[in-house]
Every structure is written in C-alpha cells, then in structure tokens.
Amino acid sequence: MSDKPLNVLFLCTHNSARSILAEAILNHIGRGRFKGFSAGSSPRANQQPNPLGLQVLQQAGISIEGLHSKSWDEFGQPDAPHMDLVITVCDNAAGEVCPYWPGQPATAHWGYPDPSAGDGTDAQKLEAFRQTLHLLKRRLELLISLPTDKLAKTMLQNTARELSKAD
C-alpha cells in the first residue's frame, strides 16, 4: 500500500443517515490512512443529512463539516476520486445495480437498520442513531487496524466482506 490514503465510499439509498455516519467516523479515526466518502443511490431532491445523525456525531466529538447528501453518480465521473473500497450500508442499496466505479474497487456489504425509520419518539430515534454510530465505529476500527498486507487490492475485498460478520 502506498502513502496515499485508501478511499472508501459508503453507499445508502438517500445518503442521509448510515452512509453519512460512516463517512464522518472513518475520516475521524482513519489516521490519514483512510479517506471516507458517502453517496446515495437515489437521494431525494434537496436531501440533507438527518439532523439526529449530525447531532450524535457532534456529541461524539466527530466533525460534521462538509457533510452533505449526494448521488453516487458523482463518483462515477472521470474527475471523481478513485475509490479503493465501496461499502453498501443498507440493504436497499446493496440490491441495486451500482454504476461502474473507475478502477474496479473492492466491494462489501455491511447492513445496518435505518436509525431514522419507524414511528418512535425523537429520543428513541436519537438512541437508534447512537447505536448505529457505535456499531459502525467498532467495525471501522477493525478496518483501520488491519495490517498493510490485508489492505492490498487482492485482499481488500475478502477482508472487507469478512468484517461484515464482525460485531
């Protein structure tokens, strides 16, 4: 692995909750070895990150600067950053036909329930966001602690898929 960071794209349907959390967490803990990005397969018009997600990130001391919802189409453009790993974090996005990713990055699916779904109170939804943040952070800490040889392109896909079983 070179000195440049490993670029990881997190995908979800709307790019408002899980993928945003994963991007922010990885950029916070990535130690310069990783750079997180996020996008959605079909973000709604004027989609914004979920305010509860932003709140739990801030409460955890994680920067929310620059976080915004965007379409995965941005990352298929010729001038887009080259991704080394693409991880779907919701089952809907995992089942969709993804665009062509330049460089043919490794892929994995790490499914998490949508913390913004359901009819719970704001306090219950806030707790769901906290739990999702905690679960994502644990799995991402495992990813960033991997030795360099496990992050080589030929190993990355298998390693990332194995981490989907870690909890």
TrEMBL record:
Family annotation (Pfam families): LMWPc (PF01451)
Top-level taxon of the source organism: Bacteria
Entry keyword set: Arsenical resistance
Keyword Endoplasmic reticulum attributed: no
Residues in Phosphotyrosine protein phosphatase I domain copies: 6-146
CDD domains: LMWP_ArsC
BP-aspect Gene Ontology terms: response to arsenic-containing substance
Official protein name in the record: Protein-tyrosine-phosphatase
